[in-house]
Amino acid sequence: MHQPLRIFPVLGLCFLNTFLNLIQAPMSFCADDPRYLNCSSTIQCGDLQGISYPFWGLNRARYCGLSPEFQVTCNKSAPIITIKNQNFRVLHINNALRALTVARSSYWYNLCPGSLHNTSQVAPFTYTSDTVTDNLTIYYGCPSSSSTNVGSMMESSRFTCTTNQSSTVGYVLARKAGDLTNANLASIEDYLGTCNTSVIIPVNQSVIQDLKANATLDALKAAIDQGFGMQWLDDDGLCQKCLKSGGQCGQVQDSGEFTCYCREQSYSSSCPGMS
Ligand SMILES: *[C@@H]1O[C@H](CO)[C@@H](O)[C@H](O)[C@H]1NC(C)=O
Ligand SMILES: *[C@@H]1O[C@H](CO)[C@@H](O)[C@H](O)[C@H]1NC(C)=O
Ligand SMILES: *[C@@H]1O[C@H](CO)[C@@H](O)[C@H](O)[C@H]1NC(C)=O
Ligand SMILES: *[C@@H]1O[C@H](CO)[C@@H](O)[C@H](O)[C@H]1NC(C)=O
Ligand SMILES: *[C@@H]1O[C@H](CO)[C@@H](O)[C@H](O)[C@H]1NC(C)=O
Ligand SMILES: *[C@@H]1O[C@H](CO)[C@@H](O)[C@H](O)[C@H]1NC(C)=O
Ligand SMILES: *[C@@H]1O[C@H](CO)[C@@H](O)[C@H](O)[C@H]1NC(C)=O
Ligand SMILES: *[C@@H]1O[C@H](CO)[C@@H](O)[C@H](O)[C@H]1NC(C)=O
């Protein structure tokens, strides 16, 4: 007869806690939903701190975020997301704008990756409006000396990749607004068209625009390492509503539906007791 008497007041207080949200810290005997606790933690990796929904990974379980592309891994202080097998280093996340700045991992301070691939489709993300997706091209395996003087005109953006003791010549070309008035551009493009292959890197248009007419290799590399912007879809304020009610945002794994993890259990949009 002793046990039920002890349990009832506890349930009553839990009930109060849920609906009034007044008493919190002393309620340790109300078992917090482990999913609420898990999704309350944020991701820290290098310079990137406090990353939350829709991102998951590391200390945040799969159910705390959206699709696999939102999984963050941490490689020696470098936060990485992976889209279609391609790794992107995450430089910045702006939750309010649902935007992030990323750079291709294999081109991070490196113009000679092991294998050459154009940037894959970035779905479920879309490029931000300040990203240009075809204005910076890296050319590989270019004829080392040109009969024209184009090679020397491009001298400042020339680099070499050395693999297995053999070197190949490459160039980085940034196409800027106003370039069409550059009489040399056509012959430069003709020459670069004879290179073995090329890779197009998305870049921030304002960073490209700031490049000097005759950009140095260092400036071009810096433009690549500044990264470019991607956005994710608007959720019509769903997560904001959940956070305001004291919950943590997440996703039901089976259905892919949004869910709001509250202290005691999960709800479809927000925690009860507050609007
Ligand atoms: C959250 O869950 C994940 C996956 O189960 C686990 O690896 C991680 O340690 C948990 N994090 C916290 C803060 O409990
Ligand atoms: C981690 O980063 C290093 C360079 O710092 C790179 O060589 C390595 O491939 C990366 N590992 C993974 C799993 O991406
Ligand atoms: C990248 O895309 C450009 C333009 O579509 C193409 O010419 C080039 O061959 C592609 N590079 C690779 C490595 O697939
Ligand atoms: C272009 O590729 C072919 C075949 O891989 C190679 O034989 C040739 O040397 C390359 N050209 C240059 C300029 O690197
Ligand atoms: C670019 O600058 C280099 C020296 O840094 C110079 O040799 C070259 O002629 C310049 N090219 C153009 C197109 O001005
Ligand atoms: C370098 O040589 C090794 C062994 O000869 C070969 O397997 C590899 O493909 C070569 N790498 C390149 C980039 O040519
Ligand atoms: C990108 O290149 C095109 C020409 O190829 C040019 O019209 C456009 O203004 C360039 N964008 C930027 C941001 O420079
Ligand atoms: C592009 O560069 C500008 C100027 O540096 C910056 O304000 C903006 O945030 C950058 N965009 C992205 C997506 O990083």
UniProtKB/TrEMBL annotation:
Domain Wall-associated receptor kinase galacturonan-binding: 39-104
Organism: Eucalyptus globulus
Compartments reported by the entry: Membrane
Catalytic activity: L-seryl-[protein] + ATP = O-phospho-L-seryl-[protein] + ADP + H(+); L-threonyl-[protein] + ATP = O-phospho-L-threonyl-[protein] + ADP + H(+)
Domain Wall-associated receptor kinase C-terminal per the UniProt entry, residue ranges: 181-264
Upper classification of the organism: Eukaryota, Viridiplantae, Streptophyta, Embryophyta, Tracheophyta
Topology relative to the membrane: Single-pass membrane protein
Major subcellular location class: membrane
EC number(s) per entry: 2.7.11.1
Family annotation (InterPro entries): WAK_assoc_C (IPR032872), WAK_GUB (IPR025287)
Name of protein: non-specific serine/threonine protein kinase
Signal peptide limits: 1-25
A Pfam family hit: WAK_assoc
The keyword Transmembrane helix belongs to this UniProt entry's keyword annotation: yes
GO molecular function term, any single one: protein serine/threonine kinase activity
Gene Ontology CC entries for this record: membrane
Keywords: Glycoprotein, Membrane, Signal, Transmembrane, Transmembrane helix
Keyword Glycoprotein: yes
